[in-house]
Amino acid sequence: MNFLRKNLIYLVLLIILGIIAFVPSVRTFLKDTFLPVAAVEDAVMVDESDYDVVLKGINVPDTNLKNFRNKNVVFLNFWGTWCAPCREEWPTIQKLYEARKDKVDFVLIAMMDKEESVRKFMKDNNYTAPVYIAESPINGKILPKVYPTTFLLDKNGRILMKETSSKDWNSNSVLKFIDNVTR
């Protein structure tokens, strides 16, 4: 009993550190609460030339990625129907699209895929987020090395967020982050 009284503060601190280390939702909350500002301040810029990508629309008209620069925040996702983690995150992307399409331009580029496969995937799952196939080379800072790769770009081309794995894009932390950067 004497030991507990003398070391109570250390035990409480140890429990708090254990909760932070082993409870992902607490760790994510603390990270999202205290780190987004630093991530935005140290962001990398995407060059104007990197935006020059001809896009064939699957469920939207054809366009060029450069048409999205200097307008809104851009949710730029590289994915493929052949990619299991890409398919896994699609429902959350669709929900994010439905919730924030008035604040964010969505550009989802199917990579290494056949147009018929992409159309079938979209139709079979009733997805409506804007999907494209790149018809010109993608280079520079946005060329994906793994799939899925997602960027959240501000209207000037600053990378606000980069994710190189599957993610729940409809989480409260993502929604709050988007709301903060689209004010």
Description:
The chain is an alpha/beta fold and about 180 residues long. The chain folds into two domains: about 1-35, no CATH class; about 45-180, Glutaredoxin (3-Layer(aba) Sandwich). The protein contains six helices and seven strands, in the order αααβββαβαβββα. A seven-stranded mixed β-sheet has the order 2-1-5-4-3-6-7, with helices on one face. The longest helix is centred in the N-terminal third of the chain and has 21 residues, at about 1-20. It starts with a helix and ends with a helix. Residues about 35-40 have low confidence and may be disordered.
- CATH T-level topology of the largest domain: Glutaredoxin
Q: Using the alpha-carbon principal axes, give the shape.
A: elongated
Low-confidence stretches: 37-41
What's the total helix number? 6
Q: Which superfamily, in CATH terms, is the homologous superfamily of the largest domain?
A: Glutaredoxin
Radius of gyration equals 20 Å
Distance between the termini: 55 Å
Average of the residue pLDDT scores: 89
Beta-strand level of the residues, as a percent range? 15-25%
Give the helices and strands as they follow along the chain: HHHEEEHEHEEEH
The portion of residues assigned to helices is: 40-55%
Q: How does the SSE layout of this entry go?
A:
Layout: H1 2-22, H2 24-34, H3 36-41, E1 54-57, E2 63-64, E3 73-79, H4 84-100, E4 104-110, H5 115-125, E5 131-134, E6 149-153, E7 159-163, H6 172-181
Parallel strand pairs: 3-4, 4-5
Antiparallel strand pairs: 1-2, 1-5, 3-6, 6-7
Helix pairs in contact: 1-2
